[in-house]
Amino acid sequence: MSNQLEQLLEIWYQDKDKFDWVLATVVETAGSSYRKTGAMMFINDLGKYYGLISGGCLESDLMRQARQCFGSNGSKIVCYDMREDDDLGWQLGIGCGGMVKLLVQPITSQNQYLDLIAVRDTLKAGQSCQYCQIVSEHTAKNYLVTEQTAPPSTVTTTPTHFIHQLSPAPLFAIFGGGVDARPLCEMAYQLGWHVIVIDERVGYARAEYFINAQHVFKQTIENVAQQNWFKQLDAIAIMTHNVQLDARVLNVVQQSDAKFIGLLGPTHRTEKVLNAANLSYKTLAKPLSNPIGLDIGGELPESIALSILSEAHAVLAGKLNLENTERLQHVS
To answer: What is the maximum span of the chain, computed from C-alpha positions, in angstroms?
Structure first.
């Protein structure tokens, strides 16, 4: 089950008029909670839900709350407070010791689908946006924030306006379509990332081995910089296992705006790649993760894929700075 908003929106959009739907959003927390503010879940009248707002302990009761919103115009505000012994949270057997407040809203054509179609289209276009939810038990109304629709404050949440800062799913390019790239593509897809696999060599990056890649690019490496998606890349893994090809890739990706660029292989091999590319560590446009990946132990492709994604995820989330942080790396 995916919890990436873009994928949740796509699931809902395909059946938006086939079922009754509600949107459940965590709008406030206190103390310990499994998910933080902004977490969303889509629930339909078949009893299916997509996304998570807890570790599974609140979902069954939330389904009951959702049924009260199907076919109505009104929202519900539901609070589970595990800090009080007599609260429903304790009756449900939840022991995380915090408070979670949720806004449960029906999604209907009458309320313009809570403006979720506009949110979907914006994220699919690779653009960030602000999304405002009206925290009220009256008529459900949300909207994509624009200059015309902006509430009094579009920076901080007010008691009546819960405002999300939404960003598109990370766009991840894997240069190299060998066997070890397959689990990396699959794991990134499971995270909800968009994946592009690039390899110009015959017999590599075969589409049937990368069925969850958004695109498998088979043209010359140098043509990649001309693609519309190139400037939108967030993370790049270079893993062709060929020094000359890695060098060409390394030159091309200097033009990208990616926040994470990593090269597979030990440092002595990286020196050969840099020399072949007529580059040095000092002339690189951005810090290079090499050897790529955190040292989590393991030598199989799946372990290496996990280590690469762990590092890339930490960098994109602002938890790791390649310029200032001493890192434990996976020696490939």
So the answer is: 69
